[in-house]
Amino acid sequence: MGIVHKAYDVNKRLTCALKVLHPTMLENEKNRMRFLREAKIMESLQHDNIVKIYETGEIGGRGYINMELLEGITFRELITQSGPLSSGIIVPIIIQICDALEYMHQQQIIHRDIKSDNIFLITKETRNLQSRITNSLRGSSSEKSLIKTKLMDFGLARSMQMMSLTKMEAIVGTLAYMAPEQAIGKDIDQRSDIYSLGVVMYEGLTGEFPFSGEHEVAMLQSIIANKQLRPIHELRPDIIPELESLVVKMLQYNPAERFQSAYELKQALAKIPITLETTFVTRRHTADENALNLSQKSINMLKAGNKEGAMELSEKAVKKLEQSDYSELNSGQVYLNHFKVLNAAGSMDKARTFLERAHQSVIMKKISYTGNQSVTLPPNPLDRQIVITYETNKWQMLYNKATKLESENKISDARIALLECAG
To answer: What is the end-to-end Cα distance of the chain in Å, rounded?
Structure first.
C-alpha cells in the first residue's frame, strides 16, 4: 500500500528508504490510518532484527516513513534463487526472527503478516547466496553478516490492547501464511505469528506451502478445514526428524498445541542438530542451474552477434530445463532469454510461445503465493521484466502474425489474430 523510494536524508547525511502512501490511496481514510499505524508502531520498535525507523510523519496529507535502506534479498528470493534450504541455513535465520518476535510480543504487538517477503537478509552480494552462507558457516569466510536478518512491513501489526478494529478489519494478511484463527476472523495472539513463521519454515525447507488451493476460497477452505499436512520428509528425504517435528508443532490448528511463545520456539530451534549439507537440494537443482547458465551464455553470444551459436545454446538450455525437478525456479528467465534469441532470429511464432511460457510462470508463482492471478506489478525484478516484455510485445507479435497470415491468403485466421491483437 506504500511506495518505497531510495532517498538521501540531508539532515542525517545518509542514504535511506522513504516510504510514502500510494497516490491512488490518498483518499481512502482506512488505508491512510493503516499507514500511519504502521509508522507509529515501527517508530516505537528498536531491535537489531527489525528494520530501523529514522522518522515518521505526514506532509500535505501524505504520510511518510524514513527508514534504513536495506541491501540484500528477501527470504522468498533466497528460496527462488537456491531452492529448498538446508537446516544450517534456515535455522539461524528463523532464530533471528524469533528474537524480533519475542521483543515485539513483549511490547504487546502482533505482526499479523509474517511471510517470506517480509524477512530480509542483509548482504551486498545476492548471487549464489546459499553456497556463500554455507561456506561462511563452515569457517571459510569471515562474512558472518551474510545471514543478518531483519523483519519488515508492519502495516498489519496491531497492539493486543487495540480494540478499535472490527472483525472484518481483523481478517487481513497474506492468505497462504495465515493461522486458521486469523483466516476466519477470530481473536489472535502471539501464537498466530508463530503459525505464520511455521509456514515460512515449511516453504523454506520444501519450496511449497503446507496448504494450497487453485484460488483464494479453496486455499481458505484448506486452511480452516485443517487438511492434513503433506509430511516434509516426502518432499525432503534428507530432513532432520527433529526439525520436521518442530515445524509440524508450529502449524498445529489449535493454538494451545503450538509453541506458546517466540522464546520457547527459539529454545527448541537451538537444540536442532543442524547440517550444512545440501546434497539433496544440489541433486534436484543441478539441471535447473545448468539450464540457467547455458541460457545466460546464449544471451552473451547473441550480444556478440553470433545468432546461430546463441540459438544452439538457448535450445540446449530449454531442453535441460525440462529435465529439472524444480524447473519453475528459473523457467521464467530461461524462457525469456529464449524468446529474445528467437525474436532476433525472426522466428516470431516460436518467440511468442516462449514469451507466453515465461509470462505463465509469473502467473503460476503469483497464484502459488497469494491465490491471485494479477501480475501487473510483481515485486520480483525478473517477474516485472517478464510482464513488461510480455505486455509490450504481445500486440506486436499478434499483428505480425496477422500480417503473415494475410500474405498467405489465410484471411479468416488473419482476422482472428487481429481480433486477439485488439483485445
So the answer is: 30
Supply φ then ψ for residue 266, to 5 degrees: -60, -40
CB burial string 119-134: b at 16+ within 10 A, e below: bbbebeeeeebbebbb
CA-wise closest residue to 130 among 113, 105, 147 = 147
State the Cα–Cα distance between residues 171 and 221, nearest whole angstrom. 15
- At which residue does the C-alpha cell 503469483 appear? 366
C-alpha cell at 171: 481478517
For 145, list phi and psi in degrees, rounded to 5. -70, -5
Exposure string of 333-344, with b = 16+ CB inside 10 Å and e = fewer, is bbbbbbbbbbbe
DSSP β-ladder status, 62-68 and 53-59: antiparallel
φ/ψ of 270, rounded to 5, equals: -65, -20
Scan for cell 542525517, then name that residue: 12
Residues 331, 362: Cα–Cα separation, whole Å: 9
Q: Among candidates 128, 115, 117, which has minimal Cα distance to 83?
A: 128
Q: List active site positions.
A: 113
Give percent of the chain above pLDDT 90: 17
Mean pLDDT of 392-410: 70
Residues facing residue 6 across a β-bridge: 17
Whole-prediction pTM value? 0.61
> For 348-374, what is each residue's pLDDT tens digit?
778 878 887 777 766 655 433 333 444
Q: How many CB atoms lie within 10 A of CB 185?
A: 14
SS3 sequence, the chain? Answer: CEEEEEEEECCCCEEEEEEEECHHHCCCHHHHHHHHHHHHHHHHCCCCCECCEEEEEEECCEEEEEEECCCEEEHHHHHHHHCCCCHHHHHHHHHHHHHHHHHHHHCCEECCCCCHHHEEEECCCCCCHHHHHHHHHHCCCCCHHHHEEEECCCCCCEECCCCCCCHHHHCCCCHHHCCHHHHCCCCCCHHHHHHHHHHHHHHHHHCCCCCCCCCHHHHHHHHHCCCCCCCHHHHCCCCCHHHHHHHHHHCCCCHHHCCCCHHHHHHHHHCCCCCCCCHHHHHHHHHHHHHHHHHHHHHHHHHCCCHHHHHHHHHHHHHHHCCCCCHHHCHHHHHHHHHHHHHHHCCHHHHHHHHHHHHHHHHHHHHHHHCCCCCCCCCCHHHHHHHHHHHHHHHHHHHHHHHHHHHCCCHHHHHHHHHHHHC
Q: Grid coordinates representing 39?
A: 509508522
